Amino acid sequence: MNLNKVDIDWDKLGFDAVETRSMFIATCSIDGEWTGGSLMPYGKIELSPAAGVLNYGQGVFEGTKAFHTSKDNIVLFRIDRNAKRMAWSTKRMCIPQMDPDFFIQAVMETVKDNLDYVPPYGKGSMYIRPIVWGTAPALGVRAVAEYTFIVFVSPVGSYFKGGVKPLNLKVETNYHRAAPRGIGNAKAIGNYSASLYPLTMAKKEGFDEVIYLDSVDGERVEELGSANLFICKDGIIKTPKLSGSILDGVTRDSVCRIASDILGIQVEETDIYLRDMLEADEVFCTGTAVIVTPVGRITYEGQVHEFAHGGIGPITNKCKETLTALQRQEINDPFGWLHSVIKKG
Asked: Could you tell me the residue range of the domain that residue 245 belongs to?
């Protein structure tokens, strides 16, 4: 296949949707199975004003990436884990459970048809958005009769404006992202709409994102609106344990494995109290979009706390560099996480 690139200024890529050649689309009835589907030109879709997703938020999505590597290959990163999470999320939201093999095949077809939109090695990545909605009309509150699955892609650069830099965060004390036994651990669209208002208010105050606390007593750290959180103290990495309201992030799990198995750093998945975070040596966040991003400052009740002198700490930097090198095939992949789309080297 031709790996020539489209005419895009790769050095100016942000994190915005760029129109590509095609997207994958399939439909399924509530009592059916996900089969078939096909590529179609990238473009708008039609929905009934009574569609389940528009009226009752019945929808889930995933986020993963394709990379043009140092060996001139095109690879997907841990796509099997995204597929398993999509299966869990669809079941939780009363959507026909997505078969992991069907999910992976749909992603592969979409990426292959848009190979020339994968940024060159070192210039970014292709963000892949599989999403499934309840598209049949419904007036009463119920799981609707039909669902639409779409996979679209976009070349992207850094998630945060101005490139990768230590984040300035705010601890949110007035709002919660999710509650235990709710849908916080599913990749549901409603989880993100709930975080928009606190995020908008925080950005007006000059912050990049907000940190949410647990909804039981407000003493434990959970995650950001768009990423998982880690702290480092005395050479030990800690991240909030999966409590039912925290998303089981693919990058979160990857960093835990890399730190423990490659870097030899002790990793603990545990309760992290607010005071633990504010007294940490380093703080960083992880996600498919943000990768590994250092946190420079956190404001809580008007008081600013600085980490790693407002820069990137040594442990954060090791995790970031190792993960990025693995994704780009600059180092050996000991876990078998890379899934080849096109293999040359």
From this structure: 167-327
